[in-house]
Specification:
heterodimer; A: about 70 residues; elongated; B: mainly alpha; rod-shaped
Chain lengths: ~70, ~750
């Protein structure tokens, strides 16, 4: 069912976003705690990184259909 | 690629050429070439026709002139005989070469020449013969004169003198005849000469053999007749000759007896009564002699006559053309000759005896005369003395003295006479000797002549004998040669006959095979006609039968078809029903079974089979969604499609997604819009499309809805892909099923028979 695909993509995207943000947050926190003396910028950095990654991933995921893969070409 | 181009170029060029090339010149060319070829062909045809006609005419004319050429052409060229027969007529009959027959007649002609030569020889022989007759006659006459001249007493010519004189000429004449006889040409039995002037036709074998047999028979008859006559005559003549010879010998004996008796009577001094007895004996002997001489003469005449007849028969025999008579004739001639010779000898003996007897008789006469004279003188002197000597003792001495004186005187006279006589006698003797010599000479000549004649005759007979032998040898040789020739001829004939037989056989076989072929073809044609007619009838009947069968079969088939159509229709109905078994969201049951049923029911029908096999695989395995479910699904899809309306290949970032969502939230369109007949550019807005699709769906036009939905682009299109596929599937299936049912209906309609 092609109409469900979008939904699936959205689900994955959200999941991924959550994971990424969480991971970023975590890492940020960790880093901030460990390396950067509890500055908040690693957390936000991590968060942002996570968010960005998630955003990018989500976008890639949603675009994936329109991208022509090299293997296919080959 | 390049080759294809080249080919294309070439074909194009060619087409150009063919197309552009002036058809007119080509046609002209064709016409020109046709004309040219036509002209040259016409010329060549005319030339060949003229040549053929000339050759045929020339051959016909020459065949008309020369039959050999005609026959050779007829033999070598088939069907020319009929052509010549039509043009010239049948072949004229040819003349059989007469050469062989002419050659056969060489020997007879040669024999002719030989016989002619013989004839000439004989003719020369004849000429001296008449001369000898003259001399013989003369000599005989002279001899008679001489004999008569020995004494002054006229001799009594014996009655047989004339015969003697007559016989030599007759003898000679017979000898002449004898000579003449063989002078006839010895004609061989030659086959009857053909009329050389007429065109010869070979006599058929039977005729020839009949002729030959006839000739043989005739020859045999003549031969037998001739031989019989010859034998008769020979016997008769032999008898007569023997009789004559016997008579002559008897005559000879009688003459001898007579002369001896005469001599006895003359010389013996016997007493008178014995003398008288002697004289009586003498008379008797004389009578006997004359009688026998007469008899001998008669017998000789008879013999001569018989010999004459024999000679005539011999001449006849010689004259006849029968060859086998010759030895008989020869033998008869020899016999004749021997008889003649014997007769001659005997006659000469008789002649000599007769002459001797004449001499003796003359001597006796003379003696008698002298005695009588003496007695006369004595009686004149002594008249008293009687003639009787016994009375001498009675005489006186004077008488005795006178007697003695007379005797002395007589003696003297006699001496004188004797001396005179002696002288005269000497002279006479000389003359007589001369004459005798002459006569002897003549006699010698005559004898020599006769001996010569005899020897000549013998030689001639010998020659004839040799001739006969030679002829026999020649005949045998000729026979062998003829046989050889005949054999060669038969061989040649055999060969020719063989060749002819072969030719004739080949001809006959040809003719026969031709005739047979004709007959066969006729027969074949007739049988073929018959067969054809029969076949036609059979075909007609068969066709009718077949028609009937086909009608029945077609009926059966029609029924079968109807049944099949019914089955198909039923199966299609089943399929239809299967289509309706879909649930709300579940597809129908797999249409495989129904499709299989349909396929089974339409196994023979290609269209239906094709259609049945045209069902999409998905529908068979999984079944199709119903329209209602699709419609329901569409509504869900519609919302989604609205949301992703802005997303496509280029615009597919997350922000675009946000914007698209925003648009979907904010934009409101008609739920349903009737789609226009033609979609323009501004109708291709997704929202409008969705409205149109919804409208169509609501109206049950899934097809249009699908078409419209197909116009979506980008993500929206991707989202509705599945739905579209399903819709397509359903549509396909429905189309197929619809076609099948329509087909089944049509078939069912088709198979129903009009009342």
């Amino acid at each position: 069912m092609s109409e469900k695909e979008l939904g699936k993509k959205w689900d994955r995207c959200l999941a991924d976003c959550a994971v990424k943000i969480g991971a970023g947050l975590g890492l940020g926190v960790v880093f901030s705690v460990v390396f950067f003396k509890r500055h908040t910028w690693p957390i936000s950095f991590g968060l942002g990184t996570g968010l960005g990654m998630a955003y990018s991933n989500c976008q890639n995921n949603l675009r994936s259909h329109y991208l022509v893969h090299r293997t296919k070409e080959e | 690629m390049l080759r294809v181009c080249l080919k294309g170029a070439n074909s194009a060029a060619r087409k150009c050429l063919c197309g552009k090339g002036p058809s007119h010149p080509l046609q002209q060319c064709r016409r020109y070439t046709a004309g040219e070829s036509g002209g040259s062909a016409g010329k060549i045809a005319a030339a060949t026709v003229v040549t053929l006609g000339g050759g045929v005419g020339g051959t016909v004319l020459y065949a008309n002139w020369d039959p050999k050429f005609r026959t050779s052409v007829e033999q070598n060229v088939p069907y020319s005989a009929s052509l010549f027969g039509m043009a010239l007529g049948p072949i004229p009959a040819t003349v059989v070469p007469v050469k062989k027959q002419l050659e056969l007649f060489q020997p007879p002609s040669l024999m002719f020449e030989e016989s002619k030569a013989e004839k000439k020889k004989k003719k020369t022989v004849e000429s001296p013969a008449p001369e000898t007759t003259q001399t013989l006659e003369q000599s005989s006459l002279e001899a008679s004169y001489v004999i008569s001249g020995m004494s002054e007493v006229p001799c009594v010519p014996a009655p047989h003198d004339t015969e003697i004189t007559s016989t030599p000429p007759t003898e000679v004449r017979t000898e002449c005849h004898h000579h003449e006889a063989p002078a006839e040409p010895l004609v061989l039995e030659a086959p009857p000469p053909p009329a050389g002037e007429e065109p010869l036709k070979e006599r058929p074998v039977e005729e020839v053999s009949a002729r030959l047999a006839q000739q043989d028979l005739a020859e045999q008859d003549s031969l037998t007749a001739l031989s019989a006559s010859l034998e008769d005559k020979l016997a008769a003549s032999a008898k007569a000759a023997l009789h004559a010879i016997g008579a002559q010998e008897a005559a000879l004996l009688a003459i001898a007896v007579h002369t001896s008796k005469l001599k006895e009577a003359m010389e013996a001094e016997s007493p008178p009564d014995q003398k008288s007895a002697q004289w009586k004996d003498l008379e008797a002997a004389l009578n006997d002699r004359s009688h026998t001489v007469d008899e001998a003469g008669a017998a000789l005449l008879k013999a001569k006559e018989a010999l004459e007849t024999l000679r005539s028969v011999i001449d006849q025999g010689k004259a006849s053309k029968v060859d086998a008579v010759r030895p008989l004739v020869l033998a008869a001639e020899e016999n004749l000759h021997s008889m003649v010779v014997d007769l001659d000898h005997v006659v000469t003996k008789v002649q000599s005896a007769q002459s001797e007897a004449k001499i003796v008789s003359q001597y006796s006469d003379l003696v008698n005369e002298a005695k009588q004279q003496f007695q006369k003188e004595l009686s004149s002197i002594t008249p008293e003395v009687q003639a009787n000597w016994k009375g001498l003792s009675k005489l006186t001495p004077d008488d005795l003295n006178s007697l003695i004186a007379h005797a002395h005187r007589r003696i003297d006279q006699l001496n004188r006479e004797m001396a005179e006589q002696r002288v005269r006698a000497q002279i006479h003797m000389e003359t007589a000797l001369e004459q005798q010599r002459l006569e002897d000479q003549k006699m010698l000549e005559q004898a020599v002549g006769t001996a010569l004649e005899h020897s000549r005759e013998e030689a001639r007979l010998e020659q004839e004998r040799k001739l006969v032998e030679l002829r026999e040898v020649m005949e045998a040789e000729m026979r062998t040669q003829l046989r050889r020739q005949a054999a060669a001829h038969t061989d040649h004939l055999r060969d020719v006959l063989k060749v002819q037989e072969q030719e004739l056989r080949a001809e006959a076989e040809e003719v026969l095979s031709g005739k047979l072929l004709e007959q066969e073809t006729v027969y074949r044609r007739l049988t073929q006609e018959q067969l054809d007619n029969f076949t036609l009838d059979m075909n007609a009947a068969y066709a009718r039968l077949k028609g009937m069968e086909e009608a029945i079969d077609s009926h059966v088939i029609a029924e079968e078809e109807a049944r099949k159509a019914h089955m198909l229709w039923l199966s299609v109905e089943g399929l239809n029903f299967a289509l309706r078994t879909s649930g709300a969201d579940t597809p129908t049951e797999p249409l495989d079974g129904a499709a299989a049923a349909v396929r089974d029911s339409c196994a023979a029908d290609e269209f239906a089979a094709a259609l049945a096999s045209a069902l999409p695989e998905e529908s068979l395995s999984r079944g199709v969604y119903s329209e209602a479910s699709l419609r329901a699904r569409f509504y869900a899809l519609r919302a989604l499609t609205r949301r992703v309306a802005l997303i496509d290949e280029t615009h597919n970032s997350l922000f675009q997604y946000f914007l698209s969502y925003l648009q979907a939230a904010l934009l409101f369109e008609e739920r349903e819009l009737p789609p226009p007949a033609q979609l323009t550019g501004e109708d291709l807005d997704p929202f409008k499309i969705l409205s149109y699709a919804t409208y169509s769906l609501e109206r049950g036009d899934l097809e249009l809805a699908a078409k419209l939905v197909n116009q979506l682009r980008g993500e929206a299109r991707r989202v509705v892909g599945d739905w579209l596929a399903e819709a397509r599937l359903t549509l396909e299936t429905r189309q197929v099923v619809g076609l099948l049912s329509a087909y089944a209906n049509a078939v069912g309609l088709g198979t129903t028979q009009a009342p």
